[in-house]
Design a protein that fits this description.
The chain is built from 11 helices and 12 strands. The chain has about 240 residues and is of the alpha/beta class.
Length: about 240
């Protein structure tokens, strides 16, 4: 299982939100590319980047910061937020992004999402952000009646690279990941799953690493708050 550090972008700065709320934002760094370089030097093999403004506005907003990250690091970079068309996806890949993550459009435009997955095989993941088993879209502003498992199974035949599954209630809260829901998803679909939300310690990562078919775990706030040392976490988890 990969330990994947997160860089959430708001106004071209590194921040963290609590449960996706923009009125609960903490600024951590004004140099996203520098942060990405530090995570690479600590041993990260992949970096998770979210354009928070783009996820709400439905278009790329923090593109210059994403480009700077891709230009400075040599590891894989996955990016989500504001990617709503084939043109958006192509633009990200042209910047040097390794994996693009489709979020809102996997609910709002399923045919379009499948076209993007087919156009860029092995490069497109789907992001499923959930609260109470239901999918949230538009930067978590809208809760749908779409079931997490049903949505994931819909995309199995399209073969996305992986699913990023986020438990919104736990995101940025340092309360521990939702092990049961994550394990249920990983067990019920054939698509590899990356867990996100709530990681507060290396012990949380160890618990996630025990879930079959889980290929990665994203951690953000715990790194920025000094609760997890990335180098130590990678040593314990990825070398088991």
């Amino acid at each position: 299982m990969l330990v994947i550090p997160a860089i959430d972008l708001h106004n071209s700065q590194v921040v963290r939100l609590q449960q996706g709320a923009f009125d609960k934002v903490t600024l951590y760094n004004r140099d996203p590319a520098g942060v990405a370089k530090a995570w690479q030097e600590a041993g990260a093999k992949r970096i998770h980047v979210v354009d928070l403004d783009g996820s709400v506005q439905g278009k790329g907003v923090n593109t210059p910061a994403i480009k700077a990250i891709c230009n400075l690091v040599d590891v894989d970079v996955e990016v989500g937020g504001g990617i709503r068309s084939e043109e958006d996806a192509a633009r990200m890949i042209d910047l040097g992004v390794t994996f693009i993550i489709l979020g809102t459009m996997v609910v709002d435009d399923r045919k379009g999402a499948k076209r993007i997955i087919e156009r860029f095989p092995g490069r497109v993941a789907i992001g499923i952000d959930a609260i109470g088993g239901k999918v949230a879209i538009h930067g978590w502003q809208d809760i749908t009646d779409v079931d997490v498992i049903d949505l994931a199974r819909y995309y199995e035949e399209a073969h996305p690279a992986f699913i990023v599954y986020t438990d919104i209630k736990r995101d940025g809260m340092l309360t521990g990941p939702n092990i049961d829901a994550t394990a249920s998803l990983a067990r019920k679909v054939d698509i590899p799953v990356v867990a996100s939300g709530g990681v507060s310690s290396i012990e949380d990562l160890v618990a996630l690493n025990n879930i079959p078919h889980l290929v990665g775990a994203i951690t953000g706030k715990a790194l920025y708050e000094g609760r997890i040392d990335l180098k130590e976490a990678i040593s314990r988890i990825e070398q088991r």
